[in-house]
Q: What sequence folds into this?
């Protein structure tokens, strides 16, 4: 009989669920966040309380079995939020723990291969967000950006922006997941915001943003246009590099 | 900064700079020190792409499009009747900083027409970089174009503030240069390159002794050649390229399909298609030299002076060297794996890992991401069904082309039509 373990959606929560599955010696198990959980017709289910201690033990166990790079892959795959992600990771973890040697790069194993595919997707989205974030200067002197990434990449891009924009206050907000990261010149905090009902994230209203903001957007727009070579135009390639779903918040595409 | 004035200048001076294709912002390692602005990340970031599909990672502009020279292939040439403009040093600094703060760019690529003299121009380019570094505490990427003929002292200073320096060779052969850029001579390109190379070597030596030696052009130097403006063949282009890689430790050579911009009879006429497919083949060849361990003579030589347009250079090489195949993916070394058509370095890496666990077969290779359409004629693996019947190179090529949909297929058939 299959057991469903419900966790809170955090990485530690997931690792706690893995720990629980091992502890209870469950044969058939599936894991799901409380948000996605639907009561099954058959089988049992159980809610897992996130436990730092248990999560750490699984993580430490994995650390012993694989390289830092492989470990990173597992975390990336987790952030993909794909509905099958938990099962894939769980199976991969079972495989890793069951082997004497390091098998975390055995790409002939379907679960390991799947982890590396998910990692690739997430990695690409991380890279895209490092590229496509467009800061706008607010009247309060904060550089503000909206994003709607396919995967939950804010935790992955935090350090990049912290290192790069050390001397300006900035805020990157994930509209899809409704949280943001804010740098106040000292540290980066996770925050959530309440927007006014008439707030349009794709516009630069003069009520919120600095006057020069629109000028620089215009200059950037002009620059984007004059740097194009019409006789080499290739929209297919263009869209491949800058998929349309990102255009909404790219000032040069307005 | 006056918005309208800068806007007009930007339109003119970005437009004039767009034919320079070296946009890369990679290869530097400048870190953000004492809470300044920016860093130059080693891998580089494309912040957007033009509608022609090229990466935009730097604010690429000319300081001025006034020029005392008259190079036929250049829009900025003296005899061309166009609007002229010149930025002030501070205007370039402000634009760079404000674009950077909004995460539009990785940094600045600053080039220039030659006003008055080489040194006069170079001095201003250096002034921009110096201001960015010393006054604005800017650690983003700076690429300065060296002006041919600029003095050694200025080149030295340039390297202290820039991440990368470049001199464009533009025309791959001496004769071509004489014909199209009579004001220029090759020695003027070589001299600054030589200077930069020696400074980089000296920097490396000094750094061993004194840790705090200021960085000198940490991303090295690059150059660009225009393809298809002056009648040279692929062998001439790639041998020139190879010469510069070897003798000046260049980080990159860029190839730029000539975009016709003038009615000068020495050049392809306006309306002639840009040789994009050829440009692509040159980049592929360049890639094989830098990352796949090929020697230039293996790909281009007296018997084989042109790259194939219908197939990529690695496949072309493999078909001329069938005696090296098939390669056994379960035992071959990295070098040979990298030579199998259809296998990129990522697949090579995955194969090397995966085969430690078991013998790989077709299914494994496919799952790893090997393009079997091309690869299957050149390798064997732990499967009984081999594709390596005794096929001739022509036959293999035919089979591969039949089953592949190249993004250039359309373009290629256009070019064939040209030759009727
Ligand atoms: S010197 Fe440079 S800017 Fe001047 S015409 Fe020649 S290529 Fe153009």
A:
């Amino acid at each position: 009989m299959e057991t469903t373990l419900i966790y809170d959606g955090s990485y530690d929560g997931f690792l706690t669920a893995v720990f629980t599955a091992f502890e209870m010696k469950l044969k058939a198990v599936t894991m799901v966040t409380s948000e996605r959980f639907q009561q099954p017709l058959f089988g049992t289910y159980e809610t897992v309380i996130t436990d730092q201690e248990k999560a750490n033990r699984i993580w430490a166990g994995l650390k012993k079995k694989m390289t830092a790079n492989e470990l990173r892959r597992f975390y990336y795959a987790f952030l993909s939020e794909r509905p099958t992600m938990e099962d894939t990771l769980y199976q991969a973890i079972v495989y890793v723990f069951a082997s004497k040697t390091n098998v975390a790069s055995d790409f002939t194993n379907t679960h390991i291969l799947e982890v590396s595919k998910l990692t690739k997707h997430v990695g690409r989205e991380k890279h895209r967000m490092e590229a496509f974030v467009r800061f706008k200067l607010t009247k309060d002197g904060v550089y503000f950006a909206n994003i709607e990434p396919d995967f939950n990449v804010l935790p992955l891009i935090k350090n990049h922006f912290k290192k790069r924009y050390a001397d300006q206050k900035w805020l990157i907000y994930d509209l899809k997941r409704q949280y943001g990261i804010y740098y106040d010149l000292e540290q980066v905090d996770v925050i959530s915001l309440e927007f006014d009902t008439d707030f349009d994230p794709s516009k630069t209203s003069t009520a919120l943003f600095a006057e020069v903001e629109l000028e620089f957007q215009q200059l950037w727009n002009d620059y984007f246009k004059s740097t194009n070579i019409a006789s080499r135009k290739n929209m297919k390639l263009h869209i491949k590099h800058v998929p349309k779903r990102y255009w909404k918040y790219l000032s040069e595409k307005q | 900064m006056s918005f309208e004035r800068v806007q007009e200048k930007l339109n003119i001076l970005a437009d004039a700079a767009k034919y320079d294709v070296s946009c890369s912002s990679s290869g530097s390692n400048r870190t953000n020190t004492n809470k300044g602005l920016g860093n130059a990340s080693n891998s580089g970031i494309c912040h957007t792409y033009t509608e022609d599909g090229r990466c935009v990672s730097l604010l690429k502009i000319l300081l001025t499009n006034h020029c005392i020279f008259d190079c036929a292939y250049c829009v900025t040439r003296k005899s061309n009747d166009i609007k002229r403009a010149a930025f002030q040093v501070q205007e370039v600094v402000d634009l760079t900083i404000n674009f950077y703060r909004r995460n539009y760019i990785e940094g600045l690529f600053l080039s220039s027409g030659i006003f008055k003299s080489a040194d006069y121009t170079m001095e201003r380019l250096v002034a921009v970089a110096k201001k960015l570094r010393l006054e604005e505490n800017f650690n983003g990427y700076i690429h300065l174009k060296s002006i041919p003929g600029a003095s050694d002292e200025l080149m030295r200073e340039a390297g202290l503030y820039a991440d990368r320096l470049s001199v464009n060779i533009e025309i791959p052969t001496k004769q071509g240069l004489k014909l199209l850029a009579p004001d220029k001579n090759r020695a003027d390109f070589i001299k600054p390159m030589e200077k930069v190379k020696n400074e980089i070597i000296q920097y490396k030596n000094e750094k061993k002794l004194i840790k705090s030696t200021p960085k000198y052009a940490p991303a090295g130097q690059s150059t660009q050649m225009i393809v298809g403006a002056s009648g040279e063949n692929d062998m001439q282009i790639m041998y020139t390229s190879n010469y510069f890689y070897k003798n000046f430790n260049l980080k990159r050579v860029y190839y730029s399909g000539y975009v016709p911009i003038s009615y000068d009879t020495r050049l392809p006429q306006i309306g002639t298609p840009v040789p994009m497919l050829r440009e692509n083949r040159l980049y592929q060849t360049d890639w094989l030299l830098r990352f796949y361990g090929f020697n230039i003579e293996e790909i281009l030589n007296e018997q084989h002076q042109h790259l194939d347009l219908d197939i990529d250079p690695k496949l072309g090489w493999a078909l001329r060297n069938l005696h090296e195949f098939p390669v056994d993916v379960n035992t071959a070394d990295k070098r040979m794996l990298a030579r199998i058509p259809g296998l990129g370095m990522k697949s090579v890496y995955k194969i090397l890992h995966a085969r430690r666990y078991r013998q790989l077969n077709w299914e494994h290779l496919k799952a790893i991401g090997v393009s079997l359409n091309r690869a299957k004629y050149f390798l064997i693996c732990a499967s009984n069904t081999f594709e390596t019947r005794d096929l001739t190179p022509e036959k293999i090529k035919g089979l591969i082309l039949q089953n592949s949909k190249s993004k250039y297929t359309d373009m290629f058939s256009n070019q064939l039509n040209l030759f009727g």
Notes: Chain A touches chain B through 53 residues (CB under 8 Å).
